[in-house]
Amino acid sequence: MMRGLMKVLTGLAMALGLVHLGLSALTSVRAWGLDTLWFAGSGLAILVAALINVVMIRAREIDRVQSAVWFIANLALTGFFGLAWLVLKEPQVIVGGLVFALLSAGIAGRSVARA
Q1: 2-31: per-residue pLDDT in tens?
Q2: pTM of the prediction?
Q3: Residue 71 in contact with residue 86, Cβ under 8 Å?
Q4: CA-CA distance, 111 to 115, in Å (whole number)?
Q5: Could you read off the pLDDT of 68-87 as tens digits, one per residue?
Q6: Contact 40, 20 (CB under 8 A)
Q7: Residues 13/50, Cβ–Cβ less than 8 Å
Q8: φ and ψ at 60, to 5 degrees?
């Protein structure tokens, strides 16, 4: 059941990253600037973290280093969304923060269960 939930959360994270990149492309038509680059970079970071989740969920065996990288990637994005909330109180920030917080918790729970 936990694996299924992590797949759903990863799908949501991928969608969030792709929407971010798509919106960047749409806004760059009007003006390509620093804000657009930061927005696209954020979308790319979200997408890369989601892809790390895809790879790790599909892995047959996971060693301690892989598990640590997986956890840190998700925890970093959780922190990123937490910081974003300070300046942008929008629903997508809450969704992103919850997605990556739940993924982090799932990874931590998986590590504890295997110990």
Answers
A1: 788 999 999 999 999 999 988 887 776 677
A2: 0.88
A3: no
A4: 6
A5: 999 999 999 999 999 999 99
A6: yes
A7: yes
A8: -75, -40
Q: Which residue has the tokens 């959780």?
A: 78
CA distance 43 to 22: 9
Q: Which of 58, 30, 28, 31 is nearest to 43 (CA)?
A: 28
Q: Residues 6 or more apart from 62 whose CB is under 8 A from it? A: 56, 70
Q: Are 78 and 97 in contact (CB under 8 A)?
A: yes
Q: Are 63 and 72 in contact (CB under 8 A)?
A: no
Q: Whole-angstrom Cα distance, residue 43 to residue 76?
A: 14
CA-to-CA distance for 75 and 69, rounded, in angstroms?
10
- The DSSP secondary structure of the chain, one letter per residue, reads -HHHHHHHHHHHHHHHHHHHHHHHHHHHHH---HHHHHHHHHHHHHHHHHHHHHHHHH-S---HHHHHHHHHHHHHHHHHHHHHHHH---HHHHHHHHHHHHHHHHHHHHHHHH-
**What residue type is assigned to position 48 of the chain?**
V
> What's the token pair of residue 46?
């979200």
H helix or E strand, kind and range, residue 73: helix 64-87
